[in-house]
Specification:
The structure is a homodimer of 206-residue chains.
Chain A (H helix, E strand, L loop, with lengths): L4 E6 L6 H10 L4 E5 L1 H7 L10 E4 L2 E3 L2 H11 L7 H25 L4 H29 L11 H17 L8 H11 L2 H9 L8
Parallel strand pairs in A: 1-2
Antiparallel strand pairs in A: 1-3, 3-4
Chain lengths: 206, 206
């Protein structure tokens, strides 16, 4: 019998979205349990590390978004065919995640003067550093981040660049034509395409 | 023929040390290429994302420390026997890495007032949050972080807690008896034990 999956996260794309993308890509049914603030406040004290997303499967509750994404990707053949392919995918996904953390680090600054300094560093250094590297890998791999074929790293990047573009109020693909090809390749999948057409619009604050 | 490994990192434990631990645990020869500042300045422009560690193997250069550690761990049987075991190890290693990032985030603050605020948040919230969680997993798994047996997550945690204790000038194992058991289990390995006895002493700044 196919396992029953229940994903619990905010009513927002965020760190839940890469996992949602993997399920939709593979056409796997899952419960998309989207919590509002009150529901999360109730659950939070019992969540490992006080964090979401959480994935319930076969009576177990999984946490840590990258580890969940990799686990689900393995079940659907998106995690490489050998150890070296898996490494290439992991390194690309970790780089996408490092970029995410750099943006979040800027967004979380409270002091206006310091935030402005972070903004300049982000624009002048971090965004080019990470997106040039990712773009060069996408060029080498014909529109994929690793191994010349689709993997969960591509889905992870496209899910993350979507909501980071929203937060930064700019199109992060602009100037990175090979990353745009990654997005095209991910959105060409019927399951992802259908999900992106009908998914709830992000609103923040939640 | 056994692959030839060359690890390039600072002359410091840091993010190179979990990978060194895995090699020493498994008794695998590798070149421990420790760069001084001048050597690193020369290499840096050509390093992916301007970062170390780098691992050369079979004519390829690997980057991203967690992805490297997972790859090497797979070669020596420290990455779990099935997808769910691999997940448990990944989630534990990511948690150890999140803890590392929280400490680095504090250490990197320049403004004394803000740094003091970060210090209080680290001491009162972050350290207990992460180390209580890790300690509870170590308790459930009899002195290991996952699956009731040794994995690269244990080696990762012990390598990282070593140098974070050095930076924070305190023994991070104090008050966490089950993490101390993880350390005991890691140090019980003859290869790791011998390395820890003879490894270069960390000095900072490099």
């Amino acid at each position: 019998m196919a396992p029953k999956y229940k994903l619990t996260y905010f009513d927002f794309s965020g760190l839940g979205e890469p996992i949602r993308f993997i399920f939709h890509y593979a056409g796997i049914d899952f419960e998309d349990n989207r919590l509002n603030r009150e529901q999360w406040a109730k659950l939070k004290p019992n969540a490992p590390l006080l964090q979401m997303p959480l994935l319930e499967v076969d009576g177990k509750t999984l946490h840590q978004s990258l580890a969940i994404a990799r686990y689900v990707a393995k079940q659907v053949g998106l995690a490489g065919d050998n150890d070296f392919e898996a490494y290439e995918i992991d390194a690309a996904a970790d780089t996408a995640n490092d970029f995410r953390l750099a943006v979040v680090h800027y967004l979380s600054q409270q002091d206006p003067t310091i935030k402005q300094q972070f903004k300049e560093k982000l624009e002048d250094e971090k965004i080019p550093l990470y997106l040039n590297a990712l773009d060069s890998w996408a060029k080498k791999n014909n529109g994929y981040l690793a191994n010349g074929k689709i993997s969960w790293a591509d889905l992870y990047l496209v899910a993350v660049l979507g909501y980071l573009s929203y937060f930064l109020k700019r199109d992060l693909y602009e100037g990175y034509p090979n990353l745009k090809k990654v997005q095209d390749n991910v959105f060409a999948n019927p399951g992802v395409n259908s999900w992106v057409q009908r998914r709830p619009t992000d609103h923040f604050p939640l």
